[in-house]
Design brief:
Helix content is 46%, strand content 12%. It is α/β, with parallel strands linked by helices. The chain folds into two domains: 135 residues, Rossmann fold (3-Layer(aba) Sandwich), CATH 3.40.50.1000; 85 residues. Strands 5-4-1-6-7 form a five-stranded parallel β-sheet. The protein starts with 5 loop residues before the first strand and ends in a 16-residue tail after the last strand.
Amino acid sequence: MAFYKHYSFDLWLTLIKSNPTYKQERVQYFFRNFNGKHKSIDEIAITFRQVDLMVNAINEKAGKNVDAEEMYLMIISMINDYDFNFNDVDLKVLDHDMEQIVFAHMPKLYCGDCLDVLAKIKESGKSSTNILSNTGFIKGKTLKKVIEHLGIGRFIDFQLYSDEVRMSKPSTGFFQLMLDRIDRTKHPELLLTDVIHVGDNPHADVRGAEAMGINSMLINSNNLSISNLLYDTV
């Protein structure tokens, strides 16, 4: 195995995947608490999917970040036939409850090889690592706790989440922030070609990385998996 000096990883559908029961319970919560127009479970689930896809596309196009609170308010408005009266919505309570649902229905490792590959990279002593992730309904502050729970955190040097820095992939600013955070005492002569970003999204991950002049690897949405990193060369 030939090591890059620095490995950047996407999170969702690269290292972790959603627990299906989480999405079900999230819909149930909105069905119980914000459903003034008596929409069906299926209708609310469709609304979540629509907002998720729309906001993801907006973030990727604008390079900025629509926050989770804004996404939840969109859901509440849409399932109530675009009512914009949010006076009864306590965002602090909503944030707390949404995080608790995540913890009760924890995301899963994307595959059995994830931890093994991260461990081999870390054990080499030659490389540093980070997570560079766009966020949606689940905030970076929550994902950091998920990462620790799943055993990923001990292999990662730093984490960057779009909601915390107001930038989203494929924004060059987000990738530049990642490059600026790399420990140059460990890599004093770091070149862009010494860095690779790994993810599942051809646009946000691959094109974003290539626009910065760093290497990229597309996995999981094609015929490659994270284990292919072990056979990649600089």
